[in-house]
Amino acid sequence: GNKNINAKLVLLGDVGAGKSSLVLRFVKGQFVEFQESTIGAAFFSQTVAVNDATVKFEIWDTAGQERYHSLAPMYYRGAAAAVIVYDITNPASFDRAKKWVQELQAQGNPNMVMALAGNKSDLLDGRKEAQAYAQENGLFFMETSAKTATNVNDVFYEIAKRLPRL
Ligand code: GTP
Ligand code: MG
């Protein structure tokens, strides 16, 4: 039969990586060139139907600014899934993404489904390094563009497929 699953999902990543833009694309189908930097965190929800289940994502879009770092555990605690976002044109943001993965591996729910999103794929071609890194660390990897909508729904759909069936 069809199952209804509620899944808390957190987005983490550097300032300007495109967390809010990915959520805005996923939830509202929109993109804005001048998206404002998130203060604290923002909440959204969106439902995805997969073959055997309806997954309602309860999404926390966190702020990338360093001064909000200490708030992050409130958002990833108890989360079923995390999307760690970096900007493929910004190597420092990839380093920051790795730090988030380490923090989640140390402090997060061990069953958490983790996605690494290399965002702004409209600006540059893919990166083999990220693919290899994701594979080694048990994440799945996708390059996304909040601007063109490339792979945005797909990240959430792939998470929904991977969530444990209760
Ligand atoms: P914080 O809230 O400060 O942590 O940043 P964020 O990760 O939420 O980034 P945000 O979504 O605010 O995006 C930052 C900038 O990148 C904005 O000007 C967006 O328009 C732009 N942007 C986001 N995603 C994409 C994308 O896929 N392609 C392009 N070209 N620009 C993008
Ligand atoms: Mg934001």
From TrEMBL:
GO BP of this protein: protein transport; vacuolar transport
The organism of origin for this protein: Phtheirospermum japonicum
Protein name (database record): RAS-related protein rabf2a
Family of this protein: Belongs to the small GTPase superfamily. Rab family.
Keyword Membrane attributed: yes
Residue range from the parent sequence: 5 to 170 of 196
Sorted UniProt keywords: GTP-binding, Lipoprotein, Membrane, Nucleotide-binding, Prenylation, Protein transport, Transport
Keyword Hydrolase: no
Purpose: Protein transport. Probably involved in vesicular traffic.
Topology class, membrane: Lipid-anchor
Subcellular location field: Endomembrane system
GO MF annotation list: GTP binding; GTPase activity
A GO cellular component annotation in the UniProt record: cytoplasm
